[in-house]
Amino acid sequence: MDHIVLITGATSGIGKATAQKFAKKGWKLIITGRRKEKLLQFAEELKSKYAISVTPLVFDVRNFSEVEQAWNSLDSEWKNVDVLINNAGLARGFNPIHEGSIDDWNEMIDTNLKGLLYMTRVVSPSMVNRKKGHIINLCSTAGVDVYPNGNVYSATKFGVDALTKSMRIDLLKHNVRVSQVSPGHVEETEFALVRFRGDKERSKIYEDFTPLKARDVAKTIYFIATQPPHVNIQHVLMMSTQQAGSNFIDRSGRRDL
Ligand code: NDP
Ligand code: 8X3
What we know:
The chain is of the alpha/beta class. The chain is built from seven helices and eleven strands. The chain has one domain: Rossmann fold (3-Layer(aba) Sandwich), CATH 3.40.50.720. It has a seven-stranded parallel sheet, with helices on both faces. Helix 1 (13-24) crosses helix 7 and helix 3 runs parallel beside helix 4 (102-130). The relative contact order is 0.14. Bound molecules: NADPH dihydro-nicotinamide-adenine-dinucleotide phosphate (NDP) and 2-hydroxyethylsulfonic acid (8X3).
């Protein structure tokens, strides 16, 4: 298998589970994140477990010169990325709009929107030149429906949805597919811990219902990426059985098998 997938935000959660899924299927991987030690250790694990090639790149997606430098550090053969998964992202804070933190707002906008744009800007020209490629963006149920205190996080994910749609139109004539996955709540991630800045008590948001797991989303991403060349799955909106939308969760207890 000579296919190359580039996954941003592979040090934890959905990105990590997605890297494991593609590695298991024999793909060549470029994995990224800011936490160097975690990323390098994960790359070694993948290489020894699956006997595949893995290139780890440590950089902050919010910083365009770091993004460009990381991309330029790749050998030309590694630049032939078949699938770009724009996964790195986060929510910060959970305040009503009049009490929101400007720093939190900037961090979400810079990561979820600008980071996705910067990655797309450096990777997509090679896809256009080769007339081949697939970009898969991580959106959210928060990009489909708003909820109390979700304000700016939702705005970034509504923005991701708009970008997915417009990127698909721009890249249509170049034979580059653009898809999106919008999950509801997903455990086995650091999402809640990051949103609540390490507050373990506040981060216990999955105790009274069973959410999706990171590997459920990974499986869906892999399915999207492995359709025949004439098929593009444009958008998958997925939630656990106990969730029916951003504002509808059956919190009557977990239903793990
Ligand atoms: P995690 O916090 O577990 O993972 C986030 C990943 O993004 C980490 O690998 C982190 O790596 C990386 N990342 C964050 N900021 C940056 C940055 N500035 N530069 C580079 N990498 C960065 O969360 P999830 O796995 O849950 O989140 C993945 C995506 O899924 C996000 O876009 C999120 O919005 C979306 N999502 C999550 C849901 C959930 O309930 N968990 C539901 C719906 C969507 P590092 O810290 O090492 O840089
Ligand atoms: C993560 C899901 O509902 O916390 O995107 O916004 S939610």
